[in-house]
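Let us work through a complete example step by step.
Step 1: write down the sequence.
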Amino acid sequence: MNTTRRNTSRWRRTAALSFIPAVMALTSCSAEVQRGWLPGERDTTDHTPLVTDLWVNSWIAAVIIGAITWGLILWCIIAYRRKKNTVGFPRQMSYNLPLEVFYLSVPLMIVGVLFVFTDRDQRAMDDRFSDPDVVIDVRGKQWSWDFNYVKEDAHEDPGVQAHLDGNWGAPDRLPTLYLPVGKKVELQLNSRDVQHSFWVVEFLQKRDLYPGKNQYNRYINIIPTRTGEFTGKCAELCGEYHSEMLFKVRVVSEQEYNSHIADLRAKGNTGIRGDEFDRNPARPALEPAQQRTEP
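Step 2: predict the structure and record it as tokens.
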């Protein structure tokens, strides 16, 4: 009996000592750990803190629940193992009502808590601005992107498919979307042909693009809060050259943004490249000449 108690006590100390480093690792001062190893910086947009906190806190909860579960399993294995001189079988029970209620209620509570926090943050990210400062019509196509600045009545050059070399190095010339820092931006997402997915990696948000449908939530409303250049790509397998459907996002000052719009207008990139360039089976096809000349 004394030996069993010593073994159980030793196991409890070992489990406690193993649990402490795990918690310390999750709550350490490392910036990467605090972000849960997510890409980019915490304050890239007004939404990245919401995503980061939900991700990290979910992992902390999962580690704590997992440690408790494994601890109980190991405790049962050690405390109720068959003794050397035991004869026969222990008393058998067909059910234990309090234990079964516990097994049912605790997982439901865990799922309910995760649902509440996820729903709260998702609703906050899906809220639309009543009067955004910048509205951009984003058009995904096989295998590139077109960007239209709606309020400025200007557009970027037609996007051209990237061509990656054998080392998967990104080419210099990629479709580039300009955003002003600190301004309310609405990205209206559309597809010219098949289903795509708009994903700016460091923004920690992506959204699918459906051809020919006015789908709910085909938009992203954000406020960029950090200047810099960010990586964009399609996150939906959309054909042979899906991996080369890349783009860039440059978040710049308002002055630089206005200067870029002026440059687009100066070289004739006025107006919106809209539905007339779509290649949607549900709509009339483009003439062959248009299909050859338009990227």
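Step 3: interpret the result. The longest strand covers residues 134-141.
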